[in-house]
Amino acid sequence: MTTLYVTDQGAYLRVQHQQFQVFHQDELRCSVPASRISHVVLFGSCNVSHGAVSLALRRRIPVLYLSTKGKYFGRLQTTGQAKIDYLTQQVQKSLDQAFIRQQSASMIVGKLHNSRILLLA
C-alpha cells in the first residue's frame, strides 16, 4: 500500500475504473489502482471529484488536506463499521496451524530472496 500525494496546484483527483487519476492542466499525470492506495494527501489548492471521495470512503482511505507548505487542515475519513466477516476469517486462520506454517514459510522465502537481491547489487 502506498500514499498518493497530490502537490500540483490546481490538480484534479478523479476516479475511473477503480483507479485514482490525477489531472493537472487537463493532462493525466498519474493513474493508480485504488487497491494500492492507503492514504491520499492533498497539498494546497487541489480539487477532488465526488466519485473520488465516494471511493475513498467506501475503501476506508483517509484523505488529508494540507496547505501548500504542509500545514495540516483536516482529513476526510469514514467511521463505518468493521467488516465482521473479515475479522472472523482472521481469527479462524490464526487457529489453523497449516495456514500459519505456510504463511511463515512464504515470509521467510521472501525475506531470503530480497536479502539475496540486496547483497548481489
Structural description of this entry:
The chain has 121 residues and is an alpha/beta fold. The chain has two domains: 2-76, Ribosomal Protein L15, Chain: K, domain 2, CATH 3.100.10; 84-120. Helix content is 36%, strand content 34%. It has three helices and eight strands. It has helices at residues 50-58, 84-94, 97-120; strands spanning 2-6, 12-16, 19-24, 27-33, 37-43, 47-48, 63-66, 72-76. A four-stranded mixed β-sheet has the order 1-5-7-8. A four-stranded mixed β-sheet has the order 4-3-2-6. β3 and β4 (27-33) form a beta hairpin. The protein is extended and about 50 Å long. The mean pLDDT is 91.
Order of strands, main sheet, comes to: 1-5-7-8
Give me the secondary-structure category. alpha/beta
Mean pLDDT: 91
Strand percent estimate = 25-35%
Q: Brief overview, please?
A:
This protein is α/β, with parallel strands linked by helices and 121 residues long.
Question: What features would you highlight for this structure?
Answer:
four-stranded mixed β-sheet, 8 strands, Ribosomal Protein L15, Chain: K, domain 2, single chain, alpha/beta
